[in-house]
Amino acid sequence: MRSTSYKIALIGNPNSGKSSLFNQLTGLRQKTGNFPGVTVDKKSGIMRFASIPEAVAVPTEPEITTDRPPSPVTPSEAILIDLPGIYSIYPKSRDEQVVMDILANPRHPDYPDAVIVVADASNLQRNLLLFTEIADLGLPTVLALNMLDVADSMNLRVNAVQLAMQLHVPVVKINARTGEGTELLRDAVQRASTISLPQSAYFMDPSEEHEALIEETKKAFGLENNYLAMQYVCQHEAFTFLDPSQRTQLDNLVASHGFDKTDFLAYETITRYERLRPLVQKAVTIVGESDQPAWTRRLDKILLHPFWGYVAFLGVLLVIFQAVFAWAQYPMDWLDLATAQAIEWTKNTLPAGVLNDLLTDGLMAGIGGVIIFIPQIAFLFGLVGLLEESGYMARVMVIMDKLMRKFGLNGRSVVPLISGVACAVPAIMTTRSINNAYERLLTILVTPLMSCSARLPIYTILIALVVPDETVLGVLNLQGLVLLGLYLLGLVGALASAWLFSLFIPRREPSYFILEMPTYKLPRWSHLGIMMFDSVKSFVLEAGKIIIAISIVLWVLASYGPGDSMEQASEQALSSLTENVSPEAREATVASARLESSYAGHFGRFIEPAIRPLGYDWKIGIALITSFAAREVFVGTMSTIYSIGGDASEDAVTIRQRLQKERNPRTGGPMYTPAVSFSLLMFYVFAMMCMSTLAVVYRETHGWKWPLVQLFYTMGLAYLSAWITYQLLS
Amino acid sequence: MLAVRNVADLKKGESAVIKSFSDRAMSLKLLEMGCLPGCEVRLDAVAPFGDPICVRVGGCYCLSLRRNEAASIVVE
């Protein structure tokens, strides 16, 4: 019988291998969503159990009475929920608050039936601190001992049986990277659902010191567990499930007992460690000198070096950009060509007419504009993921912290800024790990200036139009170098803006930076693969929807005009032509006249005076307007606009060729001169044209103030720099 | 020795034993991350421009923190 209502939470320290284990247990049966009521990303997935015959699984001994009735049937699968990595159940950042918001509230939809705590065996004492806290909350817990290979290389031997006996919970040795031991873990978790053990003694009972306060809290809120009652006392400010009167009630309890939270927390942590120490000493045998693996120390000597550290970091960035530009170009060219051929084939195969035009010029051109991003998004997310997985990202934070502080940011801001190169939306969501609200806000404000992958197609096409494909200094591709320059410009813009904002926004709390440095690890390729697949999937589904919708709307706007103005325009265009004009030229003139008198043409004409100083015409104006929702629409719009009426010329199949052929009606020369192209590039480096980013900033800052500030300063910056560029180059 | 020494005073490669903390709020974070009184710390690496620093705690893992934060860890 299926009972997927059975929930298991996955908890562990950062860097304990929690997400690898999550991937091992769920594979591709994952989904990303939000925890209800808060904006923290939730990853959950289906975890299957081996089928065990009912007769074996149901316990034969009389049931032990507990708070929690054991589930009547053996579940065959469960929903595994990945909770943010934490060092203790006392949150240090907004992201971490969600853990106790769930674990302290049995009515929460994600409240688990059992918990898997993942512990890094190479640092057992500290990892068990979190375990004892979870166990003291009275949740059925299974301990998964991970990274035994690292412990081994540090001359530590861990005795899991000894540990299980002392902690009174099932302990399973696993290797989250290879999947070793995960079958045993599944069995242990499944068993935890049917055999419910009585709450063993508290590891640390808060009523040892605060009996009266605990008793009153338990009575007032109908609680049974002493440690849970203590969490109500300590963390009620952050619990979303309490109403204001309940919070006041707890405030009063705290005041009447003269309870000092900081004192208690220090006492609690030290007591837990004191009780853990003899236990860990029994379970762990030290067989030699223990130190971090030698290769981690050797690598750190180079990567944290005052000079070579930066050289290495710059090298890594250069490799990323050259790789994304050079390697991703091949699959992108294939996709571009495949789209063009699919459109041509459909056009010629299906009967001609409005439906054919809508399908090919509207829908298929729009889809083509979406799928062309796939290689670059996969590459960027893959490479950023590689840096995180290997442990190098923590080193980057360290070498960048002092520099970032000068601009009012934090070493942790590096991750959002680098992820911003892929997409500002997930990047802004990663700012939640910055525990200082002020530094977090600055990071959010400037992250969209980092050139995201949606700008890449614009950069790619415009650079290819005006920068020769040459090799300089032997190995570097000139187009790649210009691309790197645009990215650096975005970075400089981001840092300068952060510094300017830091002059105007007052800082409220002191900044801090305490970070664990993980050992270097070889990344798991399957793990990276899942991540790349996920990011591409969410891009295609989320951004794709908008892009395709806008493409269709645009096709309609470009194909129809007010009244019979389009017919009149085409007749006028025909009558103005002399007899000896070729049929192709005749058709092109008519098409361009029709587009100009369409609804889209009217829009473009309307804003033309505002963009004329930047060197743009009304066709670019249409693309600017449509790409206001999402800049990736720019290329899609360009292909839609230039494909209308452009199908007569057989050779102009790709968008780049169409742009090359485009003539400036005033000068007769090419429309896309270096001045216009670079002006457009400058505009897109700075302009914040992305509804999704605005929406996520609104969500993260709880209001319209900051997204609007961000929109106006970036647009101002974009207009100004595009104007200066055009005036200098033309 | 009369002067109170802290982790920020350590020379590269030098070890010391944690005695206490001089900042209450900071001490909670450090305790949770495994910096306990009685634990041995060693200054392992110093980031470019002298800040932040990396210390090895209890011989088993590495923590990176800023100089002013390290200054709140009093050593024997």
UniProtKB/TrEMBL annotation, chain A:
Sequence ranges assigned to domain FeoB-type G in this UniProt record: 5-195
Domain of life of the native organism: Bacteria
Compartments in which it is found: Cell inner membrane; Cell membrane
Amino-acid positions noted as binding GTP in the UniProt annotation, renumbered to this chain: 12-19, 37-41, 82-85, 146-149
Keywords: Cell membrane, GTP-binding, Ion transport, Iron, Iron transport, Magnesium, Membrane, Metal-binding, Nucleotide-binding, Transmembrane, Transmembrane helix, Transport
One term under GO cellular component: plasma membrane
Main location: membrane
Binding residues annotated for Mg(2+), in chain numbering: N23, T26, G27
InterPro entries noted in UniProt: Fe2_transport_prot-B (IPR003373), Fe2_transport_prot_B_C (IPR011640), FeoB_GTPase (IPR050860), G_FEOB_dom (IPR030389), Gate_dom (IPR011642), GTP-bd (IPR006073), P-loop_NTPase (IPR027417)
Family to which this protein belongs: Belongs to the TRAFAC class TrmE-Era-EngA-EngB-Septin-like GTPase superfamily. FeoB GTPase (TC 9.A.8) family.
Full protein name: Ferrous iron transport protein B
Protein source organism: Salmonirosea aquatica
Automatic annotation (TrEMBL), chain B:
Record's keyword annotation contains Iron: yes
InterPro entries given in the database record: Fe-transptr_FeoA-like, FeoA, FeoA_core_dom, Transcriptional_repressor_C
The entry's keywords: Iron
Domain Ferrous iron transporter FeoA-like, residue spans: 5-76
Gene3D superfamilies: 2.30.30.90
Molecular function per GO: transition metal ion binding
Name of this chain's protein: Ferrous iron transport protein A
Originating species: Salmonirosea aquatica
